[in-house]
Amino acid sequence: MPVAFPAIAIPKRLLMGPGPSEVDPRVYRAMTQPVVGYLDGVFLQAMDEIHAMLRAVFSTQNVATFPLSGTGSAGMEASLINFIEPGDEVAVVVGGVFAARMCEMVGRCGGKLLRIDHRPGTTADPDQVRQAVRGKNLKVLAVVHSETSTGVLQPLEPLKEIAQEAGALLVVDTVSSLAGVPVQVDGWGVDVCYSGSQKCLACPPGLAPITVGERAREVLRGRQKPVQSWYLDLSMIEKYWGQERRYHHTPPVSMLYALHEALRIVLEEGLEAVWARHQQCHRAFVQGVEALGLRMFVADPAARACTVNTVHVPDGVDDARVRGHLTERFGIEIATGIGDLRGKIWRVGLMGRTATPELVVLLLNALESALTANGFACPRGAGVAAAEKMFATQPQ
Fold first, then answer.
1. How many CB atoms lie under 10 A from the CB of residue 165?
2. Dihedral Cα 177, 346, 290, 384, nearest 10 deg
3. What is the mean pLDDT of residues 86-99?
4. Is 70 exceeded by the pLDDT of residue 118?
5. How does residue 396 score in pLDDT terms, banded at 50, 70 and 90?
6. Separation of first and last alpha carbons in the chain
7. Given CA atoms 280, 202, 263, 160 in this order, what sign does their dihedral have?
8. What's the confidence (pLDDT) of residue 2?
9. What is the mean pLDDT of the chain?
């Protein structure tokens, strides 16, 4: 007999965690357009436009620039397995969960891992990195630009110099930084750079934009053995995104419509305006949480990512109860820490559509309510007042 299951009813949340972030209504509308074949002329034109817009957002002229079918972790894996063969020496700068994930992937493809750890909540010391790689036959130096687990923004130019000195490819994760803070792939000498659709691009999860420079493409062409993953083999995927249009796998057509529209929205506003908006909202949020008596996890303001803001959970305050209050009373989602920081920090995403003065003020008001309900004494209205003062004195 037929079995009837009820339709899924998903409540609306205001997504202010580290991702996924709020999706623009224009992006939702784009996803409802008719699905066509992956070689349809109209779809190929959209692919060409995605290619051009991604190059603009990555600030690169790289020919091999396209979205992979998969989330940001697929971008991470593709950025490593395509260029690492068994026995290759690979250094990973580790200050959080996602850089540690890179290490696991290096091991799985037979690379000889050099793990360079630094304390979570701080940036890596270039001198320490330089000393660690000295004398090594380094193939790849990998780093996370904006570490989503800690809220640290890692300066890349010193690491570019180290990679060049070592003759290594520089591989960079920009999952929570692309379209939120400046990313200059060509200007910083980045060889391989990947991101995710679900953060500052205000698009659903499911695509991993990637760009590969010519040095890295030469390494890929010179491999001794095929890439261990057929699905993530960039030498095959780029033939579909290039002039050959050679079929590799069926792309997620509706998600590509979504990315096309999301990129249009970013470029309509202008990259510099987008970066300024994110920075302004970050500064106002920091002023607000500090006025409430809270502390940022990343002590050095210069080391903070403006997209993923990390806040210490105060002593005696229950992390889960505060987040539950925000969700149940206000419909707002923020996240706890992950790994060793679970329950110790809150991760607040000000990315894409949530990086606005109105939503920063809304969140600070809701956070004050949640903290007060859980026994933490906040100066009434201080967080909102501090943020509004910042917005007034530093208009975008």
1. 12
2. 90
3. 98
4. yes
5. low
6. 61
7. positive
8. 84
9. 97
Question: Is-contact 206 252, C-beta < 8 A?
Answer: yes
Q: How far apart are CA 106 and CA 261, in angstroms?
A: 34
Cα dihedral value 92, 97, 102, 105, nearest 10: 140
- At 395 the pLDDT is 66
- Report domain 271-393's class: alpha beta
- The predicted pLDDT at position 97 comes to 98
Grade residue 190 by pLDDT with cuts at 50, 70 and 90.
very high
In the predicted model, is pLDDT for residue 204 greater than 80? Answer: yes
264-268 long-range contacts (CB < 8 A, ≥24 apart) are 264/53, 265/24, 265/26, 265/27, 265/202, 266/57, 266/179, 266/201, 267/53, 267/56, 267/57
Q: Residue 224 pLDDT more than 80?
A: yes
Q: Which CATH number fits domain 25-267: 3.20.20.10, 3.40.50.720, 3.40.640.10, 3.30.70.260?
A: 3.40.640.10
Distances (CA, A) of 73 to 41, 85, 152, 380: 30, 19, 19, 41
C-alpha span between 55 and 71 (Å, rounded): 19
**Domain residue ranges of the chain, discontinuous segments joined by +:** 25-267, 271-393
CA atoms of 157 and 176, how far apart (whole Å) = 18
What's the per-residue H, E or C state across 277-288? HHHHHHHHHHHH
Mean pLDDT of all residues in 331-345: 97
Which residues have CB under 8 Å from 2's CB, separation 6+? none
